[in-house]
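Troubleshooting: if your tokenizer reports a length mismatch, compare against these two reference records.
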Amino acid sequence: MLASLWVAPRTPGARPVPCEDEPVLTDTASTQLVLDLVGVFVFALSGAIVGVRRGLDLFGILVLAWVAGLGGGIIRDVFLGITPPVGVSDWRLLAAAVVAGLSVFLLHGAWQAAAERHPDARWRRLSSTVRLLDAAGLAVFAVSGALVALDAEAGALAATLIGGITGIGGGLLRDVLSGQVPEVLRRELYAVPALAGAALVVLLHEVGRLTTVTAWVAVALVFTTRVVAVMLDLNAPRALRGDDRKERSED
């Protein structure tokens, strides 16, 4: 067995429990729970903000908050055979998503008023806020997803892919439900940092260097890479289209 947020459940439908005789991503079970709650909360905030931008009602905002906060974990649990997924079975995680959605719904007016008083502030732009929250959630869930997959003995390749999917899953489902092309398919480096972070966790496990510190380093690297990609507009290579060829020929 290895370091992980949670040990895979031993009975169908059981909630994974912390491993007491092995190193874990955080030092105590309570801290592990806080990490889960924070990850769900920040991703759910991004979903709720997108819902407000798309003009959805309260129910729609809560749905997007739930999907963004728990979608990646649900996909991970389905792949690993953990049923029912924690996204529909743990009331604390559900509550975190609901609180995030309600907070955005109730405080959005105050946010807009503050933004109007500071028109030059970067934080006033909701798109920047969504991406920052995305980066935080992406980092936490890419690493934790890989750890949970390794605990379930999914193998190195599967753990890397599941870690990446856990990180991007919530944002992808959020964008699809809000009627836009997912950012993972079109903007900056999104999936690449998640997959790289998950791969780093797998590598650390294989060489016996997976500890609390190195796991948090992986989280920090994913977050930093995503933020830098947004700031510098770094993108994965794209296919050369006809318009691009024409522009190059004219140059």
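Reference record two:
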Amino acid sequence: MDTTASAARRQSTQQKIRSGVLLLLVVTFAVTMNYFSVFLIIEGSAKGIATFSLIFWGLFTLTALFFGRAACGYICPLGAFQEIKDRMVPKKLARIKHLKVLKYVLAVAWVGGIVFAAIHAGGYHGVDLLYNTRSGVSVDTAQSWITYGMIVSIVLIPAFLIGRRGFCHYFCPWGVLNTAATKVKESFRWPSLHLSVTASKCRRCKTCDTNCPMSLPISDMVQNGSMKNAECILCGTCVGNCPNRAIAYSWGRPIKNPESKAAEIMAPQVATEP
């Protein structure tokens, strides 16, 4: 059997691909920034224009209906910046009581701003995928470089001061939308991507706890027989790092009573391991 140390060093193919995607998102952000811009959504909506970023964040939210918060773990550039930073300069997440309320307030304000702007414009009258990005490159002026620096700083400062994915935990309103959509799919219990566990395989080495980008108590979740957690971004780090393969990606209906410790007694589903 693999030792915990060797398992921690080994990355699954899935995690290598994910790491490559995150790096690509960071490296190309100067080009793609406007395509993710949450500010251009409001500006475009005020003119009755649906921007590329409106379509992106809309689809980003809808993916949670079938894939949970996996979009946060795989294709969000803001999360990518934080994870790259966390791998180079790790810092334990500080638990700050009540601060999470702020991201819910920001989510309501942001969505409200979009709706108000669109209504004030009399609805959407057209689509402009290159809105405010005629050259196709987002950062092509001195002013846009300043904007780039401000956005990256806003995302990275919490990660440096508060710890691992600090912005995601306490300030990200877009994660809130993904969480809300995830709650919807959990309520209807239709087939979707989730994590399944076999608690009997767990040896409590806590490799999963150490490596979780969201600083979740993975080993406790495994022992409880449920990987259900609003902050889980389904990145699969625990899947790839578990030396005993106690955790796996699954597609299907989650068990109705996730609190049960009999984790291996699950509804029929397809489990995938790296």
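Descriptive notes for reference record two:
- The chain is about 55% helix and 10% strand.
- Residues 4-183 form one domain.
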